[in-house]
Amino acid sequence: MCEDMQGYLVNNMVDNLAVLRMKLQLKQVELADMVGISRQTLLAIEKKQRPLSWSIFLSLLFVFFINEETRSLLGVMGIYTDEFDSVIKLSKPSKFWDK
């Protein structure tokens, strides 16, 4: 996946992060704990004072994707796009899984 597409998805996540979190009725500290970051880091990301890394993006995406309340919003918000879905489905498993 190209960096431009990653940047697009990350920016859309940042723009909608507080809304998604509130939809699940999670406090910042609760969501931060779920993805392995501090509440201060999550707060800074929500306020656009700190960039959202790709790895944290993927962790947040997983949290929101597994919850029915937020899954459908991901497409509407441009966070989980058809292109991203295609990339995930076309990705080959690593050799680790072949053992």
Can you put this structure into words, describing what you see?
- The chain is mainly alpha-helical.
- The chain is 72% helix and 0% strand.
- It has seven helices and no strands.
- α2 packs across α3.
- The protein is globular, with a radius of gyration of 14 Å.
- The two termini are 26 Å apart.
- The model has no long low-confidence stretch (mean pLDDT 90).
Please describe the structure with a list of short key phrases separated by commas or semicolons:
single chain; mainly alpha; 434 Repressor (Amino-terminal Domain); 99 residues; 7 helices
Quick recap:
This protein is an all-alpha fold. Helix content is about 70%, strand content about 0%.
